[in-house]
Amino acid sequence: MSRELFGAWGRELSDDQFARALAGLGVLIGILRDRGDLQPAPMPVGVGDVTVAPAPVASRERYELMLGGLLSSGRPLVWDLSPLEESAAGKWAAALEWVGAAELAEAWGGAVGASMTPVLEIHPVPPIADPWLLERLTASRLDISGAYVPLPEPEGRFRWAWPLRLGFLPDPASRALRDRLYSALPDYLGGLTEGEVGPSRCDVLVVPAGLAGALDLLERVARVSHVPQATCAILVGAGVGLEEGFGRVPELVSRLSGWGASLSPVADDALELWFEAFVRELSHDKGLAEAIRWAGDAGHAQWALLFAAPRLVESGRLSFAVTAPNERMMATAGGHTFELPAEAAAELGVPPSTPIRREAPQRFIRVGVTDLEREDAPLRRAFRAGGDHELSVAIGARNERSIVADRPFPVEKLPPSRNGHRLTVVFTEPLLLPEPLVETIELPPVGESDAARFKLFVPAEAESVEARIAVLHRGRILQTALLRGGVLPPDRLETPGAEAPDGGPAIRVIVEANIRPGLVDLDDRQRFDAAIVLNHDRDGRSAATLINGKKAAILKLDWARQAVQSIESVFAAAEADRAFDRKLDSEVSLGHLRGLAVEGHLLYQNLGVVFERTFGRKRLERIQVLSANPNSPLPLEVVYDLDPPARDAALCPNAERALIDGRCDGSSHDLNAEGHLDVVCPAGFWGITKVIERQAVDPDRLSEPVDFDHAVTSEPVGRRKTLAGVTGMLFAASAHVNDVSKTELKRVTASLKSLLGADRLHPTDTWKEWAAQVRSGEPSLLLLLAHQTLEGGITPALEINEERAGERRKAGEITEHYVNVNRDRPGPIVLLLGCDTAVPQDHYQSFVVQFRAVGASIVVGTLAPVLGRHAGRAAEALVEELQALTRADAAPDRGIAFGDVIRQIRRRLLARGILMSLCLTSYGDADWRLAPAKG
Question: pTM for the whole thing?
Fold first, then answer.
């Protein structure tokens, strides 16, 4: 088969576009056949005994809608051209006049990819034997998560175990591959697989040969020994090719008494990468088709294909392996329920069996408070005045001995592990402890963790205790909670075991925030070098807890508000300066950049020096910030860690390079006699050199009912790791954008339309229409140039349109209907740039929290207000750079992590002289990947 068979159909398309059109064609014909739109005809027109009633070419939108309906089911997409009879060149083209190839290719690109990456079930023509067709349907350009050709279901019992049982034939090449893999990846493969040479049975038989070579090896093994039984054969290596076809795959599967086989051409020097990715994806409960697909990407395979019975596609995954033993034992128990105990499951390194897992108790942060003078009487009502206390912090089910958090710890998606997870626990009480206390605990797959133990002395004059508990994994904050309680003299403390009386000052553990919805992908996430929790003590004074590994420090932020005001004044002066020509090397721009560097250096003296004193001078590349209090501002993006510039400092000669990769060798950084640098360098700003992930929680919500979910609800987990690129943008603005020029909003709209195309920009001036557009179009970007005002002079609100139009929404009125109605998909990116504001910047965080709570994946905002006349231009530049970074020729196949995206946008905008780029902030998970544009 080749493109010639299709005649003129799709002739104008590139190879990538034709592959998309071909994929869409097979799926579309299946849809029409199932709906009965393919009718018998007495005079066939080149399609055997089946034809299609004449119809005009459908629009791209119509095709995309049909594909989207199938994608939403979550089932594999069935691809089948069997209604078309293989004929002479050009004959198919006559039968396909009713299908627009270009429209179909565009529809595939619009519906498939980004957040929706299906598995393709291929029914090739003729069956199994067409390499040309299969290569095009398994290429990475189709944005599918896997592909397979269905084989008949064999007789016998399906087997799939975990740890995965890898088998190797006894020939020299297979032995060498086995030794090589386990030598290169001892910790990884050793913990997740069992590799045996010459097994009698295995889950996966690894053969470093093509199809003919594998069959020949099995023939030679059969002469001297037994042929192993293998659920699936993996043919991988440079010897796998298309030229021999796939006609003998069923023979190979049958010889192994198996359920399937896969073929992946991988260069010899990439085999370790292939196997590491393959096992990693399976350990994250990916199906076999998906694991082979992503392993192919890691090993730079041009194509990867699985031939499998549907049962293998469905059940060849981790979740089957860890529940199947229990199901089998139940089946042999004469109908009696058999449950695998949690302790036994932990010993086996698997989660509890399905019935137990469904009913398993949730686990919580638990705190035991012990008066060291009366260790037999745990305290529940209050702390003892003038007493030494021991606090034990653990994670486990509720019990009567401990004070239990009001919300569970997010462990519901823990991956199977013999060892569980090592977590860091940080305990701070700013008024009672001189520095944070840090311990580690081991959290097993099931059951109780061990306890972190902390000593706390409560002075006789103390009235209350308010400590913060933070739990981290590899530098990432998972959950924070407040330990609150009153202080009573010994004679008023509760009797042993008694509950606190009504109205008594009972000790409580109140969850502030769950930053992760689950731990399923923790080991696959990027590590943070430091974490910062911004909060306040019970007297209302701002503070920050700095955490790096097993070290932590408390930083008072009494100075921070004045620093923020000074930084805001620099930005305001730059934005108000009519001479500001947006050229970084102009004297006007340099003046403002020097001013910002001076203020940023003060930040560094107050913050960066504490980092260095506590953690050493090692370079911090990635920082996570949890803002638990809007009154504790910390503009990390503007920290300047070089010496302050002289008043006449020039732009660093290496500025252009620094704004590409964030590095400068410092060869031009000379100090003058006053200790000032004679240059100002962009590489000094943390927003240019570091990935800064911000998370926010509204402290007012701590009093809400326990069913309120403080977890960040739109996070990259499992298959949901990729955000759509700039596929469509919803745009609304306040009339204040026109404060200087009455035509500014019109100009901004026209500019955005030019950047995105009229079909991808959806401007609106009412909240009702905004919600309708979110529901019907699910745009990937939401741009708000809204005015922050006080509705009724009391409550902060976002205002679009003119003031008299009354188009305002308070934070509590922002529902999922304005952001992400379909919560099954990753939410959009919200660009909340605002404009000239009438309320303090403190209120901004409440809107960030709300947009995130109702489904936004990322909220991009600013540290300082943007004046109306500049808000539009900043938005244009941001959207333009966002598009440039996600161009197909600029982005890697799997997209760019958003933490890197926002850092690169700051660099690019600053290179254009847009100083406001340094106050851009990003709230949400930095590991979200932004999909490359479809080519």
Answer: 0.59
